[in-house]
Amino acid sequence: MSVTTTADAIRDDLFNCITSIFGIHINDYTQIEQGYLNLKWMIDTDIGGLFVKQYNKTRYPDRLMNGLEISLNHQSNLYRQGIPTPELFAHQGKHVLVTPSGERFVLMRQCGGNIIQPGSANETQMYTLGQVVGKMHTLLNANPTDRPLHWDIRCKKEMDELWHTRWLHANTRQCAATIKALEAQRKILDKTDVELFSNCERGWGHWDLFADNLLFQPDAVSAILDFDRLNYVYPEFDISRPILSCALDPRTLPVEKVRAFVSGYREYNALSTPKLIRSIKLTWWKEAEWVTVEQEYDSTPIKRFRVENNWVSDHWDHLEDLFAAI
């Protein structure tokens, strides 16, 4: 069976299940060619526009389903508490829906707005994004919990080993741009102790807040999308990740846009300048591994993450001066 035929069969299976469970009549659909392995459709129905996402069994084996359901429960709760995020459909108390043949999927209402180009958000959009992220963090972590981290900060030894592997590959391929970027990383790793992150707060965070997962109106954020990765990690990722993704253009990070985000965030949560800078460095530490020789199959987001990581490398020693007035 071809990939196209398989996708068509999965689509029909999901659509029939939607009609069977919810009585929704599907008039038309458009497949979304975005993301990795999971199939997605925008569908026109008798109750309005909906979005369907199938969870590929390779990317999402059964052992991940419980965690995914927890993430979606958080999304549903945030929607009910006023966070602009898609309204999920549930059946028998579950948001991860299952067809008779065993295909897992999620169904939600469409949201208005548009995905913007990385680095192109205006000040008002950044301000409202800061408000939403700040309120989201307050709601998610209203009842503190003590649980294992889904992901922890890499130790210095592991960072060094990962760097060395990428360094050898870049030199083998004689990629001057990557070699230069890795030289900058090496200087930072040599002078930075992981103790820098010892005071990072633990809690629930979206953990995937970049431009592709945000919708905007001309003067505001209109929706936060894709809560599949939401987990108990370091919420600080949700501060620097959208700032870098939405405001860095691509060699300049306008201070006024960062200030707008921080001002919005502070309406709901404390955010000192040192914490902002630590957040940026934390994202650099986590995503340093993306700085490697470009491959033919690299996604557009991965290429963008490299640009952002290199910018932080270039400004590592000057972040305090850059954001002193925030």
Keywords:
5-stranded antiparallel β-sheet, two-stranded antiparallel sheet, Aminoglycoside 3'-phosphotransferase, Chain: A, domain 2, alpha+beta, Phosphorylase Kinase, domain 1, 9 strands, 326 residues, 44% helix
Secondary structure: elements and pairs:
Elements (H helix, E strand, L loop, with lengths): L2 H20 L3 E6 L8 E6 L2 E7 L10 H16 L16 E2 L5 E6 L13 H18 L15 H17 L3 H16 L11 E3 L8 E4 L2 E5 L6 E3 L3 H11 L7 H12 L6 H15 L12 H16 L3 H4 L4
Antiparallel strand pairs: 1-2, 2-3, 3-5, 4-5, 6-9, 7-8
How would you portray this structure in words?
The protein folds into 2 domains: 3-109, Phosphorylase Kinase, domain 1 (2-Layer Sandwich); 123-322, Aminoglycoside 3'-phosphotransferase, Chain: A, domain 2 (Alpha-Beta Complex), CATH 3.90.1200.10. The longest helix has 20 residues, at 3-22. The protein starts with a helix and ends with a helix. The strands form 3 sheets. The protein has a 5-stranded antiparallel sheet, with helices on one face. The protein has helices spanning 3-22, 65-80, 123-140, 156-172, 176-191, 237-247, 255-266, 273-287, 300-315, 319-322, and strands at residues 26-31, 40-45, 48-54, 97-98, 104-109, 203-205, 214-217, 220-224, 231-233. With 326 residues, it is α+β, with helices and mostly antiparallel strands.
